[in-house]
C-alpha cells in the first residue's frame, strides 16, 4: 500500500487541467492551427508577395491570442472561482494506492476506484494522471511518487485491468 497526500492550489489544478485537456485531439488541432496559420500567412506575404487584408491578419492574430492567452486565462480564473466556492477543494487530498485500486479522500471526499475503472495511467512532465474517462483524471504530482512506487502502481494496474 502506498499513501500520499498534498494540498492542491489553483496553480496545481490549472497545470493538471492543462496537461489533461492538452492531450486531446481538439486542443492539439487548435494549437497547431494557432502556430501554423501565422507562419503560413507570413510566408505567403514574404515569399509569394501575396498581400493579406487586415481582417485576415486580425483573424489569425485573434486565433493565436485566444489559444495561447485568453483560453488559459479564462480556465485559470474558472478554477480559482471553483476553488473559492467549494471548501472541499481547498483541503489536503489523500491518496492510497493498493493492489485493489486507488482511493482519493479528504474532508467530504472519499472515492474508491478499482483498477478496472481506471481507463489509462499517464505520466506527464509534472503529474501522474489516472484517467476515469477520456477527459477526466485524478492527479498526483509526479515528484511525490518514487520510481519504485510508480512501478508498483503500474503492476497493480496491469494485473487488475486485464
Plain-language structure description:
The protein is of the alpha+beta class and 162 residues long. The strands form 2 sheets. Strands 1-2-3-4 form a 4-stranded antiparallel β-sheet, with helices on one face. A 3-stranded antiparallel β-sheet has the order 5-6-7, with helices on one face. A hairpin with a 2-residue loop joins strand 6 and strand 7. Helix 1 packs across helix 3 and helix 2 runs antiparallel to helix 3. The longest helix has 32 residues.
Summary, kept brief:
With 162 residues, this protein is α+β, with helices and mostly antiparallel strands.
Task: Give the topology, please.
Elements: E1 2-6, H1 10-21, H2 25-47, H3 54-85, E2 93-98, E3 101-106, E4 109-114, E5 120-123, E6 127-133, E7 136-141, H4 147-161
Antiparallel strand pairs: 1-2, 2-3, 3-4, 5-6, 6-7
